[in-house]
Amino acid sequence: MVQSPQPGQPDQRAWFRSMLVIRAFEDTVQQLFMQGLVVGTTHLCQGQEAVPVGAIGAMGADDYLTITYRGHGHALARGVDPEAAFAEMMGRETGLCKGRGGSMHFTDFSRGLIGAFAIVGAGLPVALGAAMSAKLRGTKQVALTFFGDGATNIGSFHEALNMASVWKAPVVFVCENNLYGEYSPLRSTTPVDDIAVRAASYAMPGIVVDGNDVQAVHEQTAAAIARARAGEGPTLLECKTYRYSGHSRTDPGKYRKPGELDAWKARDPIIRLGEMLAAEGIMSSDEQEALRQTVQGEIESAVARATAAPWPALEGIGRYVYAD
Amino acid sequence: MSTPTEVAATEITYRDAIRTALAAELRADPAVVFLGEDIGGAGGSFKTSEGLLEEFGPDRVIDTPISENGFVGAALGMAVTGMRPVVEIMFVDFLPSAGDAMINEIPKFRFMSGGQATVPLVIRAIGGATGHFGTQHSATGESWFQQMPGLLVATAGSPASAYGLLRAAIRCNDPVLLIEHKGMFARKELVDLDAPLPEVGKAAILRSGGDVTIVATLLMVERALQAADMLAAEGIEAEVIDLRWVAPLDIATIRESILRTDRLVIAEEQVHAGGWGATLISLLAQEGLPENSIPRAVSMPNYPIAFSPPLEDAAVPSADRIAEAARAVVRE
After folding, report:
1. Are residues A125 and B69, on separate chains, in Cβ contact within 8 Å?
2. Average pLDDT over residues A133-154
């Protein structure tokens, strides 16, 4: 019954765990803010967990990805240690980027996570470049780049998709359409409901997928990656999803229509996968609850270790600016 | 110390210096790739890459769409995954179209990652007036990016500088913006193609003199040398320094020169405010230098560059204006 999947193969139990980690991480970030342990700003992704988990689960170990300021979920789905992630958000020396980046810049080259960008759209050209680098070096690596619906209105989206198609670059453009670009509803800034239709002008496949269905996200991403790896060029994959929080820490999300949030919570990606796992006898609801508690314990322990970690030494203020 | 040997210098143009340097680095390192608008099939808008596509093929010499932010960002992605991309920006004036990549991404990339990555990337941008290209095709832009820690900025003031600085920039593990001057492509001089590469961040003293230090970049280097000839005929010995690097500024070389001359003239093809000339004067002033004279800056006037040839010519500092400024500081 329980498979032992290869990297990139479907693994429902691992997906479930990964989504629980992300949810617990993001819920905890909110609490840490109230306690003043995390400062600045954060952009949370509760409700969107199926996209990073499904898509990144389809990647190979050597593949590249770029993410955005709403990138905690992707980093965790790629295997980043929650302790290093918390420590980064707390500005500690043990953080993923030694506290230099913060919440919006989770980067981990050891996992092919080659950048998290706080400028909307900035990661798309970088992923394209990594994909072209792989192509020119003759490796079979592909690059995934994650971005929101709002990013499809900025020039770098157009420039990157156009070049990727002209060059048949092995890149997959994963749009998380959560219906809001910052505070603005999609249709107040964008003339189409389906971002995927924009692929037509770049002569690449544009695919709409239920972004709250981790299995569906995984399947479509795996297909797009296979196409890219086979030299058949890029894909625009639109995952329709919803963020439960506001845009950033200070946004209560009051612009939402009444009932909208509840309607999406009824389609919660973790609950849906949990029901499927129970129905198919892969993981009982008791087992799921036990796992949830285990994960919660791991997150709390990670917070405790991150909180105890040292601040960067002031002598190091000028480090990492230039190559050694 | 090595014994002086006969060097086999070759007379080449500024344009050929760039092409020769690109070819040498493409040949030396398979990680080097070259990309930009019309650089392949067309050989470059200013013919600085003629023959490179034929020698290295379309995987190494890559024509891009007109998408500056896109392909400069893509070059960043290449640079952090094992390649050493060189990007051409056809006119400096197009650099702002790549503003996000140039300002937010490339200079900060290594820092934001806590040192996980290096960014061996060169952006060559062709700038400068005197070509009657009008106000949107004539900027030098040499100081636009001096406020970006993490980004090095170089200027090619001669064929030898163009050759050496481009090769050094490609071998550098940090991102380098190299400004070339389109008014100088036909300039010729003897260049030792096998000379050691110039040191990153080091200015070059092109002419020694004890009466006044003239610091210049790009086309102003040549005009400063012409001014020095005029001054020499009058008994004034000018020291001419090609600054070469706007970031980092070689304050040590300039300081050492001014300690001898006690007089400073800046020659710059840019408005003075917020530029490297103003920065140099500020840094020196904080050290109390020069001690007994007031520095002068010969700069562009504070209005956009006009198309009309007499108006353009009047705006760009001439050798005469540089010499006059030098005379003025010597007389004081």
Report:
1. yes
2. 97
